[in-house]
């Protein structure tokens, strides 16, 4: 803190011999100090030391790395949840559509399945509609084809489908230790229930997201 030196100012004296100043007069010997004119005022300079700069840089780098990691983790988690929701929505859509179409079928025409492909062909004699399901391991798709007299439908039900199976059953049940299960049909003419299962797999970075679905659909309009 800077302090001013207190100067002893001369006592006021009249400019003429009489006591006091005359009217309208002032003292010419009254010295008033002028501060700042021709005077260098120096203040202390404050700053960071080299050690303080290094510590601040290290702390900032750590905080930036933590923020970057948390941001990346949040984006990846959001992508995984969105992908899982998309797979689930597609699987439910395919299941609903197959349930509606297969329940109206009257007969199973052919069924072939192996590790690389699967094909199921049915017919709806009441509406003169042919129905076929085709899975390809190479294309990883499950496609529904419907043919009729006046229309042709080709729908991709599933993508990223790595496995798909069709199994024909009859209405007979088998009991094993209290658990009931359908007996596979000996021939396609005996098929009254279609069992199917599929598995869809997607990869997000190093994380693999898998969704499996299985169900059994009865052919309600099956002709004996």
Order of helices and strands: HEEEEEEEEE
What form results from the Cα inertia axes? Answer: elongated
Structural class: alpha+beta
Radius of gyration: 46 Å
Number of E-state strands: 9
Largest sheet, strands/sense/barrel: 5 strands, antiparallel
Number of helices: 1
Distance between the termini: 110 Å
Percentage of residues in helical conformation: 10-25%
Low-pLDDT regions: 1-6, 12-18, 34-41
What number is the mean pLDDT?
A: 81
Provide the spatial order of strands within the biggest beta sheet. 1-2-3-4-5
Oligomer: single chain
Percent strand equals 35-45%
What does this structure look like?
Strand 2 (117-124) and strand 3 form a beta hairpin. This protein has a domain at 67-218. It is elongated and about 105 Å long. With 224 residues, it is α+β, with helices and mostly antiparallel strands. Helix content is 24%, strand content 38%. The chain starts with 49 loop residues before the first helix and ends in a 6-residue tail after the last strand. Strands 1-2-3-4-5 form a 5-stranded antiparallel beta sheet, covered by helices on one side. A 4-stranded antiparallel beta sheet has the order 7-6-8-9, with helices on one face. It has one helix spanning 50-103, and strands spanning 107-113, 117-124, 129-136, 141-147, 152-159, 161-176, 179-184, 193-204, 207-218. Residues 1-6, 12-18 and 34-41 have low confidence and may be disordered. It has 1 helix and 9 strands; from the N terminus they run H-E-E-E-E-E-E-E-E-E.
